Amino acid sequence: MMIEEQSIDKNSVIPIYYQLAKLLEGQILSGELKPGEALPTETEIAGLFEISRMTVRRAISELTSAGMVHSQQGKGTFVSSPKLNNVVFELNNFNQEIKDFGLKLSTNLLGAHIVRADERLLKIFQLDNPNTRLLYFRTVLSAEDERLAYERKYIIYTKSKPILETNLMDPTLSGLVTANNDVLPVSTKKILQVSITTKEEASILGIGSNAPVFVVEETLFDLENKPVGWSKSIYRGDRYQLTGYDGWLRKDNHGGMNLG
Amino acid sequence: MMIEEQSIDKNSVIPIYYQLAKLLEGQILSGELKPGEALPTETEIAGLFEISRMTVRRAISELTSAGMVHSQQGKGTFVSSPKLNNVVFELNNFNQEIKDFGLKLSTNLLGAHIVRADERLLKIFQLDNPNTRLLYFRTVLSAEDERLAYERKYIIYTKSKPILETNLMDPTLSGLVTANNDVLPVSTKKILQVSITTKEEASILGIGSNAPVFVVEETLFDLENKPVGWSKSIYRGDRYQLTGYDGWLRKDNHGGMNLG
DNA sequence: CAGTGGTCTAGACCACCAA
DNA sequence: TGGTGGTCTAGACCACTGC
């Protein structure tokens, strides 16, 4: 595994560890270093480039984070096999890509009410008192006058903070909670399912009944891990898709979306 | 921002940087350190615990990776606001969770053929030669005799490697490619959509027509970023769901699935 | 046992920021 | 200008691996 020594400039503004990481990454991506093969030892690399071993370790840790190599104490550092089975989908590509595409995204408030928690909501919010009151929002998300999503959101009602008109336009559940509550949501759980529209949902979205949609249930939690917000949203299946990548990714891999 | 000095044991087998990271994480999760607040400077922390600044930096880098703090050169290190808008869904939870649940997962080969690339496939594989031949596999995934998913996979055909019976049972596209090809798939792209079953799909899965399903299109790429495999799979909407988390997560947050 | 990666130190110099 | 985080060094000792 020859490594061209020229490629590192100690006086560059680019950190040495970064240069070295990119150099090693290049060796792997070009096939010079194949999965399963060992990198030179940290001491060897340090000697080759006349740099400190700590700097070498910093470079290797970059590659480890990227999943391209893995180290084993007492044995060495080895090129990993690309993992292709853990593709992750980022849900927020959705609206972000629509904005990036230059389309105007608007939120339409269908209604905001104070409701008493029914059995389902008591369970979701892990509450005992059936008199607990919740704020209930119904909104429709549109791009260029085309309705794309229908969202139903519940948050715990506290009188301490008044509800401001501007808050209601915040399309995110966490935005609503922080605006109308003193608690800080610190974690969230989302469940993604598929379904078909009911008559009511179809009419709200202006599409046909039994049309395929994404269903996203979100639960927001505070520092004590107690639910402080819950929402159920549906996204039109003919307008939304999730894209995900995995493996040894080049930067130019991404891009592109379908707005149909 | 008081930090109890007792909590670090320099002689413990647990690394100092890890102890310190957990200590700071505890301060943040308990609310002692709130979003926006500054941590003590690295030199201060090093002095407090009489440890090296590099060790402090290692601890902080752990928290930075976890998204709990962020550093600004020349200013300091600050507690971040939890990011709740980038939930990621891991697709492979699917079959993994079914296995974890103790159910037997089986793959049924409906057919394996050599086909000539049509226009759609030529475009997908970025090929010019219309005589290019591809291997085409159709499989059904079942758990405990219930059919869950229907997969159609195409890989580039090379005579060099014979197709073995055992290879055909490998349910993953990358498994098929590596088994029947000399190229190494290094990256993958997946597109997740929703749809409803056609008559043919419904009959293969043993469910009704127009039932909601996940549609996953996967493209595998080699080192030169050329497509070497492509598949289109459908997953029953009443049996599959994706779960994702974001924010400041405690380990005990996860778990649980719906196999209906 | 020798060789590997994992941790840690006590310095150093730098780029950046705010006053 | 003084204080911050960012980088880098030249050591040290350790735990683990395989012979």
From TrEMBL, chains A, B:
InterPro entries: Bact_HTH_transcr_reg, Chorismate_lyase_/UTRA_dom_sf, Tscrpt_reg_HTH_GntR, UTRA, WH-like_DNA-bd_sf, WH_DNA-bd_sf
GO molecular function: DNA binding; DNA-binding transcription factor activity
Keywords tagged on the record: DNA-binding, Transcription, Transcription regulation
Origin superkingdom: Bacteria
Any one Gene Ontology BP term: negative regulation of DNA-templated transcription
Every HTH gntR-type domain range: 14-82
Stated name of the protein: Transcriptional regulator
Native organism: Desulfitobacterium dichloroeliminans (strain LMG P-21439 / DCA1)
